[in-house]
Structure to design on (929 residues):
């Protein structure tokens, strides 16, 4: 398999653009009044090691094409992993066949032509990593070694893995929009097992970036995985009680995701959101600002245009605690009688403004309560905001960590949890496109023994 | 009778110009003296889906995926590459990449042709063609109308129908040549009901390895619509769920997701070979109360979790995991069976050609006991009766698992009283089944909606159980 390089990306980009142009012509030939399509190809290498030995070496290579045809306000879609001209023609025919049975939906149409992205800014998203398999194995082993050497209580390992991917994605529609660009993504993960008496605990850490130079060192990833695992040993349960809860930064991202899903157009027009009709209303305390930065250079979810071809733009979702905008694509916007916000495909690089409070100060502010470091299960009801999830973490008294806890649940309602946000820390210390520090929530129910 | 191998040849190999000699050459190129095992997995998959919302059939999709995954194993090392191009040069390139894991040696020589004993748990049909498209649309419209007819409080209805035909062909250097043509259909209904400004959702559905006529039998599709409405209405009246450790009675059928999370994953062969499961090294030990017998059975005709052959060409079987409370067996794929000196149990599964196989569940369920379910509820002075669940999750190392109730009631003095809001239940896998105190005589399997995720790969599965009383499970409500 070829090592990934930029050398042929220009050529591949041109080839994929040609596929889209041919497809749009074919769609017109088959009678579609409008059409949109996207095509992607990616190649990658993933190596996994365990206990110092190679476990798997995977060479990945994926292609995929999706097309939607419109016949007035009826639409049909098709997709294929085969990019040959015959398969692409077949996909167009399949989409047309589907559209013969769908019904008129006044909102089934492309975004207005004037919203199409006309300039495609270079967001610095493509940094191929010319790493050989042997080198990748060495790095993964170094990462796992650092974890295993860190503490004698680390007795076993789920291993470490390194992956690198180069992808090219091209999208176009019958308004004449045609965009495409290459991206890369590299990551290194490590998960180890600690033992204390009969009982085992497992935890992990990771680093991920667009450019290899931006990755954390293999050693620091391994050591962090080991520290997290060892810290969980000797976990106890808690009695059922109410208490303040601190969501450590890496799990606070889940609360931001719940916010985004509640203000997403599809949830709103289906009346399946606890934040229905909350635009312009205060949903957080006044100090909260949450904003989206789709053009962040090297950002892990940066994109110059959205899934409808609409130019993306930076914006505040929440300012002074007040909900400023919903998150809409063309279809859901139409259903709600609003213009698209350029969010087909989701929000890109979300950040909650972080204050001056570090984690130690946040723990002191909490006094006595629960610091959650891992959540389990899917117990969030999007319609009502009712929240009930399995948790593990640490019991805190007088601002000091006392002991690890597990096999408990935390429960509340997201609307009240958002309103009850006491403070956000400046302790954002994990990789990812969502940037937040820890969240201190005034009160939740903890169920345990 | 239609031979799955003939179907696989026609739909996968012939269009790419691959004949017997090409396959022999390819497999020979993948193996060498240093390779312990090698296989090639060809797949051709067609999917059609329809979505109805607001009474409008608003979207449909047709998709085709095809490709081949090539694997070479040396000791505990696996080299893997895949290609969505099926022409020989692309496959040879993938084979070269995959076998680089084991250095040295000449091409191996392999003669393929051993066919495992064929099971016929479902017909090798294409469910997409089993009903005219217009009738699929009409079916969804009837489902929508039934949900709206059922109660005026119904505000929104989303109904979807999915039909898949998955054709796979497995070649392995142990001589395996096996094929399976796998139909899979699914229908889902989700509703939002509103009363006095309060909104709640309910969803229901089902599926099978069958044609779409499955949903027309016994009015199944319309029954799903009524069930979704019933669930939404129950939740409109729900009060806050209790918080704390209490006696929990789990209903029959889908609540078997408990078994899937609490013990199922922990008994998969890979975790036990690596010693990362809380159940590792516990064969022969008591892990459940007397009377508890749990099996993983891939051989139930037509079930969503069933397979004629697993994705390594091994026929599926009925594997006893726990017998009368004693841990009896793990679920194995070929790699983990070879490395631990056991035999494959037909549990080697993969999401697609682009993923490596690993030990996965099929249909996991507990056998029936002798108690009348009503007697079980009557035995509880104060507790929770949980009948429907969303998903679950497990940490196989610590053994902690959760599963989230979506329909539950308080039990007070032996009677079911009020519905309570959904809540997550949490427990410890190696311990929870030792607290099973009563087992119902009403074993039921789920309706065919389960999807299991492991290491980023999703596969369809089934679960089931009789009504169970568990003495002491933590309920994550808000009402302390």
């Amino acid at each position: 398999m070829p090592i990934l390089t930029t050398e042929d990306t220009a050529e591949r980009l041109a080839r994929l653009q040609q596929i889209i142009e041919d497809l749009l012509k074919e769609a017109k030939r088959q009678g579609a009044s409008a059409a949109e399509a996207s095509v992607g190809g990616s190649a990658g290498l993933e190596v996994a090691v365990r206990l110092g030995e190679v476990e798997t070496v995977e060479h990945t290579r994926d292609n995929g094409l999706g097309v939607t045809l419109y016949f007035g306000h009826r639409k049909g879609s098709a997709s294929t992993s085969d990019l040959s001209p015959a398969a692409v023609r077949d996909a167009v025919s399949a989409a047309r066949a589907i559209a013969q049975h769908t019904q008129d939906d006044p909102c089934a149409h492309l975004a207005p032509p004037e919203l199409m992205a006309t300039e495609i800014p270079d967001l610095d998203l493509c940094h191929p990593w010319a790493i050989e398999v042997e080198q990748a194995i060495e790095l993964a082993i170094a990462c796992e070694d650092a974890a295993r050497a860190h503490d004698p209580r680390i007795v076993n390992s789920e291993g470490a893995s390194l992956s690198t991917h180069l992808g090219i994605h091209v999208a176009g529609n019958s308004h004449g929009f045609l965009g495409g660009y290459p991206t890369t993504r590299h990551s290194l993960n490590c998960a180890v097992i600690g033992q204390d008496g009969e009982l085992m605990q497992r935890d992990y850490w990771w680093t991920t970036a667009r450019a290899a130079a931006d990755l954390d060192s293999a050693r620091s990833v391994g050591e962090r995985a080991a520290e997290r695992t060892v810290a969980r040993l000797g976990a106890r349960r808690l009695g059922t009680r109410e208490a303040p809860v601190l969501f450590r930064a890496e799990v606070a991202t889940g609360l931001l995701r719940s916010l985004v899903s509640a203000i997403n157009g599809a949830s709103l027009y289906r009346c399946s959101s606890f934040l229905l009709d909350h635009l312009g209303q205060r949903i957080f305390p006044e100090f909260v600002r949450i904003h989206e930065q789709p053009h962040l250079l090297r950002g892990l979810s940066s994109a110059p245009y959205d899934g409808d071809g609409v130019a993306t733009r930076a914006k505040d979702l929440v300012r002074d605690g007040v909900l400023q905008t919903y998150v809409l694509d063309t279809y859901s916007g139409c259903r709600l009688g609003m213009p698209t916000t350029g969010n087909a495909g989701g929000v890109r690089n979300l950040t909650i403004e972080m204050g001056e409070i570090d984690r130690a100060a946040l723990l002191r502010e909490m006094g006595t309560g629960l610091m959650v470091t891992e959540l389990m299960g899917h117990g969030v009801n999007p319609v009502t905001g009712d929240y009930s999830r399995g948790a593990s973490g640490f019991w805190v008294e007088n601002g000091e960590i006392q002991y690890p806890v597990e096999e408990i649940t935390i429960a509340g309602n997201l609307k009240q949890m958002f309103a009850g946000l006491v403070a956000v820390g400046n302790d954002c210390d994990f990789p990812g496109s969502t940037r937040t520090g820890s969240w201190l929530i005034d009160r939740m129910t903890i169920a345990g023994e | 009778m239609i031979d799955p191998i003939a179907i696989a040849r026609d739909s996968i190999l012939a269009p790419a110009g691959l004949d017997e000699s090409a396959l022999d050459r390819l497999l020979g190129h993948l193996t060498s003296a240093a390779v312990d095992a090698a296989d090639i997995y060809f797949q051709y998959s067609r999917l059609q889906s329809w979505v109805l919302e607001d009474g409008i059939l608003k979207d449909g999709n047709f998709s085709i995926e095809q490709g081949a995954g090539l694997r070479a194993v040396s000791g505990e090392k696996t080299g893997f590459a895949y290609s969505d191009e099926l022409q020989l040069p692309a496959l040879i390139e993938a084979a070269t990449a995959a076998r680089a894991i084991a250095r040295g040696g000449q091409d191996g020589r392999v003669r393929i042709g051993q066919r495992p004993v064929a099971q016929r748990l479902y017909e090798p049909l294409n469910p997409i063609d089993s009903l005219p498209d217009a009738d699929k649309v009409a079916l969804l419209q009837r489902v929508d109308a039934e949900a709206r007819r059922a109660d005026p409080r119904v505000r929104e209805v989303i109904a979807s129908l999915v039909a898949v035909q998955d054709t796979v062909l497995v070649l392995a250097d142990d001589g395996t040549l096996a094929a399976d043509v796998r139909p899979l259909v699914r229908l889902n209904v989700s509703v939002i009901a509103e009363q006095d400004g309060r909104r709640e959702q309910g969803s229901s559905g089902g599926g099978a390895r069958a044609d779409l006529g499955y949903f027309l039998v016994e009015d199944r599709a319309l029954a799903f619509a009524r069930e979704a409405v019933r669930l939404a209405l129950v939740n409109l009246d729900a009060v806050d769920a209790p918080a704390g450790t209490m006696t929990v009675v789990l209903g029959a059928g889908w609540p078997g997701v408990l078994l899937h999370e609490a013990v199922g994953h922990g008994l998969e062969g890979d975790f036990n070979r690596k010693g990362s499961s809380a159940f590792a090294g516990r064969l022969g030990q008591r892990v459940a109360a007397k009377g508890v017998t749990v099996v993983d059975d891939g051989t139930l005709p037509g079930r969503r979790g069933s397979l004629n052959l697993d994705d390594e060409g091994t026929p599926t079987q009925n594997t006893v995991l726990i017998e009368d409370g004693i841990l009896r067996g793990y679920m194995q794929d070929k790699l983990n069976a070879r490395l631990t000196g056991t035999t494959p149990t037909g549990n080697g599964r993969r999401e697609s050609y682009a993923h490596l196989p690993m030990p996965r569940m099929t249909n996991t369920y507990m056998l029936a006991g002798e108690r009348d379910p009503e007697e079980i509820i009557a035995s509880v002075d104060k507790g929770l009766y949980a009948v429907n669940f969303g998903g679950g999750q497990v940490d196989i190392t610590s053994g902690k698992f959760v599963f989230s109730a979506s329909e539950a009631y308080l039990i007070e003095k032996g009677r079911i009283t009020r519905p309570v809001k959904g809540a997550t239940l949490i427990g410890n896998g190696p311990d929870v089944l030792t607290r099973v105190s009563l087992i119902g005589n009403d074993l039921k399997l789920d309706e065919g909606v389960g999807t299991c995720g492991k290491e980023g790969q999703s596969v369809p599965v089934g679960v089931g159980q009789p009504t169970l009383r568990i003495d002491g499970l933590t309920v994550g409500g808000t009402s302390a």
